[in-house]
Design a protein that fits this description.
It is a single chain. This protein is mainly alpha-helical and 300 residues long. It folds into two domains: 130 residues, Cytochrome Bc1 Complex, Chain D, domain 2, CATH 1.10.760; 97 residues, Cytochrome Bc1 Complex, Chain D, domain 2. The chain contains eleven helices and three strands, in the order H-H-E-E-H-H-H-E-H-H-H-H-H-H. It has a three-stranded antiparallel sheet. A hairpin with a 3-residue loop joins strand 1 and strand 2. It is globular. The structure holds heme C (2 copies). The site of one heme C has 21 residues, from helix 8. One heme C binds next to helix 2, strand 2 and helix 3.
């Protein structure tokens, strides 16, 4: 009996030792990723003043930014798991705790590069989508943010605990720092003429994130590289060569509005954010559809 106790004691201490060493290594790694400074010169973007451009900025902000920054963009809780991670999306209004003091370059740094003004990575803020925006759209969103009513709301600084840093290090939260994997040198995408046409659909498929999950050619078969392992199913082929062969344009817009496919399958919003896509304008849905239809029928 004594011997068994002694051996299990040794085994336990060894295991505990391994866990501790792993935690130390993962903490050092995650902390250095968090503190890394990226040497990026933000582009100088023309900030428009016209009504049409500001309305365009409003459309984009109300489509995407509100998902995390809250309905009036005052900032919102993203995750608050006591003892693990606390992440709040920033206050984007000119109120206290907001972006009044941020220059346009600071905002380009945040939205397009996922970096704070000092060049350190923002957490979660999905620059991997916004890097695909045209200069016009980026300028329009910044112009719009400058016009919204001020709301005072100071958000807590992001916190990632020792255990949180270990889990991030092990990849269990996916890739939470977009600045790490986007191509910061990518040129601005050209702005096609906005309307129900396939060129604009091609632009949108990137600018609202379809390609992140369905792949650059929309042939599916992948999982988004930033998601935690196994959290999102492998995406289907959404070209006419794949699942959408028999769909009509109505079926497609119905899916974006309700998450329900023609055969009655309901898509989980955590697997594909159709609640967000339901806010796309009718013309934008048509543009996406025309683009999907224009893709080659040949298999990969
Ligand atoms: C998936 C969630 C998500 C979406 C969508 C999102 N953001 Fe963020 N954003 C965040 C989080 C979380 C932070 C805070 C990150 C941090 O503190 O490290 C943030 C930070 C920012 C900051 C930095 C603010 C500061 O104080 O420097 C700006 C600017 C910003 N977001 C703008 C936008 C805009 C504009 C959009 C829409 C085009 C948008 N965000 C969409 C999650 C999101
Ligand atoms: C976060 C990942 C993600 C994003 C972003 C995303 N999708 Fe999906 N999409 C999926 C997954 C996963 C499925 C399969 C879900 C299921 O079967 O329950 C799917 C299913 C679909 C389907 C149904 C296909 C079928 O075989 O029934 C269509 C159509 C579709 N997506 C179009 C789009 C379009 C258009 C966009 C951009 C506007 C988009 N998706 C953005 C992950 C995503």
């Amino acid at each position: 009996m004594k011997r068994i106790l002694k051996w299990s004691g040794i085994v336990l201490s060894v295991l505990l030792g391994i866990v501790l060493i792993l935690m130390v290594i993962m903490n050092i790694r995650t902390t250095s990723r968090l503190n890394k400074t990226y040497d990026i010169q933000p582009e100088t973007v023309v900030i428009p003043t016209g009504e049409t451009a500001i309305a365009r900025g409003e459309y984009l902000a109300r489509l995407i930014c509100v998902e995390c920054h809250g309905g009036d963009l005052r900032g919102d809780e993203f995750v608050d798991e006591a003892g693990l991670v606390t992440i709040y999306a920033a206050n984007l209004t000119p109120g206290r705790g907001g972006i009044a003091e941020r220059s346009d370059e600071d905002l380009v740094m945040a939205i397009r590069h996922g970096l704070d003004p000092a060049g350190k990575p923002l957490i979660i803020m999905p620059a991997e989508i916004f890097i695909h925006w045209s200069e016009e759209d980026l300028g329009a969103v910044i112009a719009y943010l400058r016009t919204i009513p001020a709301v005072d709301n100071e958000q807590p600084e992001p916190q990632i605990s020792v255990i949180g840093r270990t889990l991030v290090g092990l990849g269990l939260f996916g890739k939470p720092f977009p600045a790490e994997y986007i191509n910061h040198d990518a040129p601005f995408n050209e702005m096609p003429s906005i309307g129900p046409n396939p060129e604009y659909g091609a632009y949108l498929a990137r600018a609202v994130g379809c390609t992140l999950c369905h792949g650059d050619n929309l042939k599916g078969g992948i999982q988004p590289e930033n998601a935690p392992p196994g959290e999102i199913p492998t995406s289907p082929d959404i070209t006419q060569a794949g699942d959408l062969a028999d769909w009509t344009e109505d079926d497609f817009s119905q899916l974006l509005r309700t998450g329900t496919t023609p055969n009655g399958h309901e898509i989980d919003v955590d697997h594909m954010p159709w609640d967000m896509y339901g806010r796309l304008s009718d013309d934008d849905m048509v543009a996406l559809w025309l683009y999907l239809q224009s893709l080659p029928l040949t298999p990969e």
